[in-house]
Amino acid sequence: VKKNIVASGGFRLIVQSMKRQSIERKSRVSDSNVQYCGLACVNNLLDSQDSTVTLAGTRLVLETIDDEKENRASVADWGIETLQKLSNSCVGIKRAIIDCGGVKLILGLMKEHARNVFIDFGGLWLVQILSNDDEAVQKTIAMYDGGIHAIVASMMYHACNQTQQQRGLMCLCNVLDSQDTTVPHTVVRSVLDCVIGAEGPNANTASWGIVTLRKLHDAHTGIKRFIINCAGAEVLMGLYSSDLDVQSMTMKCLQNLLDGSDAAVEIIIACIGFEQIVASMKRHCNDQEVQQCGLACLEKLLDCHDATVAQDSMRFLLDMIAQESGHNSLGMWGLHTLCKLCRIRDSIKQVIIDCAGVQVLMDLMNEHSNDPNVQSMAMTCLQLLVDSSSQV
């Protein structure tokens, strides 16, 4: 029966009927029945012992999806759903989809119909399962123009859906496993392009971008330098500086990037500077996570091997403390931060001393002689500095 159906053109007739019904949808009952029975027929015909039959049939399904000119969105919905069901039914069919160029077709549909929920969800599911442990598919995604961006965009458009985020991240990690050296740069650049896309950035996309970069960093530590080189920290730090969630996540991302990387320290100083980190900490002085992550970033920057960079950074902090001393909460925040830095390591204490930090503290004590909080915090800083140096 199978051979007779295939030989007489029945396979094409079945697939075309399924496609036509998905477009016309004249009757919900009859359409559902055509799809159900048609899919069962296609499954049985493709699940053949003859690999040439499976390949030919799969190629026909893909061509039927791709050759539609007038109702592409409807057919794309139907095609993605059909490929999902076929992929679930038989390992051989999954292999045939790959061998017949199905991955490129799926990525093309995702590009063409961005923001279509059914295509985004079904397409990403297919790309993920097809790219698992398959280097050829991973290379196909990497080389397909806009393929990586289609994956990243489908994640961003559905940022609140955790399943979509997990699938997208697995897809990106699969592609990062390929030997193509351009992939990490393309992945990071695509995330940043989505964040600052044509419609302009917003707090939600900024948050999604930071979380995605952090997850990619955790999954592939080698991607760190690409995040830095693509100005990822600079871009994200500049977005929504007043949004606490964005700044908190950004500061955590910066801390991860700075950890164990002298190159990261140099690039972040050049791109962002000490100033933006201090400004963010000052703006969100009551948020514990921003303060902890910010302090860890300051420690890395102040412990830089370049003495000029460290001193310039400390002078900025000391100047800010002196200027904000009249605003009690901000002035006290600055003194608290200075005390915490004093406790970290002696090299940072020496930078404070070299930048006339002792004089700044004494000036504050003179200026606010009646403020017990300023007196106590400044005295604590002086004690820590005196304990470590005879120069004081």
TrEMBL record:
Gene3D superfamilies: Leucine-rich Repeat Variant (1.25.10.10). Keywords: Repeat. It comes from the Eukaryota. This is Armadillo repeat-containing protein 8. It comes from Cyclophora tenuis.
